[in-house]
Amino acid sequence: MSSSSSLTQRNPQPDVSQDQSESPPKRRLQRQPSSTQRAMSQTLTSAANLANLLPTGTLLAFQFLMPVFTSNGSCDYPTHVLTTVLLTLLAISCFLSSFTDSVMADDGNVYYGFVTHKGMWVFDYPDPSGVGLPDLSKYRMQIVDWIHAVLSVLVFVAVALRDKNTVDCFYPAPEQGTKKVLDIVPMGVGVMCGMLFMVFPARRHGIGYPVTGDGARR
Q1: Domain presence at residue 138
Q2: Where along the chain is composition biased (Polar residues) (predicted)?
Q3: DSSP letter at 51?
Q4: Which single residue of 5, 24, 41, 156 has CA 20 to 30 Å from 208?
């Protein structure tokens, strides 16, 4: 017993609680980000996720069809024309999708329609009389819808100009100045569109966009 006690005295166990209490406190940020820094961070995040601002179906069609239409960037005259037609149709799709919206009826299903100056025209509702739908006049077309339509087309152009197949098809051997423009302009358009989408946030849930299923969100 005496030998074990002497060993304990010679090799005392460390006091864990004392070491934890004496550990230096973690440093915390002294400055909180300003409103300007937070706005810039959100803008850059929106610009980095430009594809999320486009209709899902249009974006999937672009990603799936561009390698086929451009022959992986090796375009001749027919494929050049077909690619131009495809890009035009996809841009029109982005424009028109900004004027679509969804509404939840009394049966619990979500229906889609086009917005007009008088309200919304629901084209897939089974009852032509509109019984069971909420007041569609509050879904009428607004100025912000036109802004979103133009911005969606610009975002699509920016995404298309960042696609390798598109650039190789229309600019197979760009000059140095053209190459700089192709590198700078899409990013500039992305940042500007990201800022404008923050100023004019989208409230519609049309075709190809996320649906909340809330028919009384306005």
Answers
A1: no
A2: 1-23, 31-41
A3: G
A4: 41
Q: 37 lies in a domain?
A: no
| SS3 at position 34 | coil
Are the C-beta atoms of residues 103 and 122 closer than 8 Å to each other? Answer: yes
Name the domain count of the chain.
1
DSSP state of 135: -
Instruction: State the number of CA atoms in the 13 A half-sphere of 67 facing the CB.
Output: 3
Separation of alpha carbons 111 and 17, rounded Å: 63
Distance (Å, whole) CA 156 – CA 163: 11
**CA-CA-CA-CA torsion sign (119, 121, 125, 128):** positive
Q: For residues 44 and 187, give the distance between their C-alpha atoms in angstroms, rounded to a whole number.
A: 10
Q: Could you tell me the residue range of the domain that residue 86 belongs to?
A: 52-99+150-201
91 is a domain residue:
yes
Q: What is the mean pLDDT of each run of 10 residues along the chain (218 residues)?
A: 45 48 49 52 50 79 92 90 95 92 86 90 80 86 91 90 90 84 83 81 78 46
Distance separating alpha carbons of residues 134 and 129, to the nearest angstrom: 12
